[in-house]
Amino acid sequence: MTTPEPVFLRAAGSTTLGPLLVQLAAAFGEQEPAVSIDVTAAGSQFGLDSLRAGEAELAFVSWLPADRAASPLEPNWRPTMIARDGVAVIVHPSNPVSGVGLLQLRDLFGGKGYDWSALGGMARPGTVQPVSREEGSGTRAAFEALAMEGQRVTPRAVVATSADEVLQYVATHPEAIGYLSAALANERVKVLTLEGEGPTPEAVQRGSYPLSRELWLVTGSTTSPALRRFLSFCLSPAGQEIVRREYVSLR
Fold first, then answer.
1. Average of pLDDT values for 201-210?
2. Which of 7, 95, 124, 232 is 20 to 30 A removed from 216 (C-alpha atoms)?
3. CATH number, domain 7-84+214-244
């Protein structure tokens, strides 16, 4: 029996999606030991830039606009949706605010809302401290498109370079408000409802949660047989079962 030639693939992209890609690559490697997939998570824009430069065969991104004219993709690139997700808005657990409307959220992150007392928040006035992701983050792009309607987040915002940094800051600063993938929120923070809807799998699936988005794998104009098999695995029942552990699967 002929031993298959080793195949090395490079995947780059979103820090939100990075852990999922590592799990998918490991499970695929159990089926095809000759295929190794190196995963580098440094932001959605980093992934697209790596694909464009030929430094990766696969980009994984946490936001693509529905308007193709506004898309960052090259005309011959192929996006493949692998999951759905909600962008959760989080505050410190001691904050009594449980939900906001989209206009209120836009004011808070746009620099127009400065005090929690205006939202029935802290017992004593407290300055609102927005926490945002860095430029090139797919989650930031999704938030600005869906929540801010294209407006920029205020320069007053603390800028975090990963979802973990957002979580850590909000969990330790009672005045903070931030956003991250709903899959990454935990008991250290409180997740707010938006327009009365929480980022539950059901609400994300039907699109009723205002900050629902899709998660994507992007390939270039040519793909190797091994890469095509990996994409098929990600969409297979086994791959989607891995997706379902963290995100909203397509099945």
1. 95
2. 7
3. 3.40.190.10
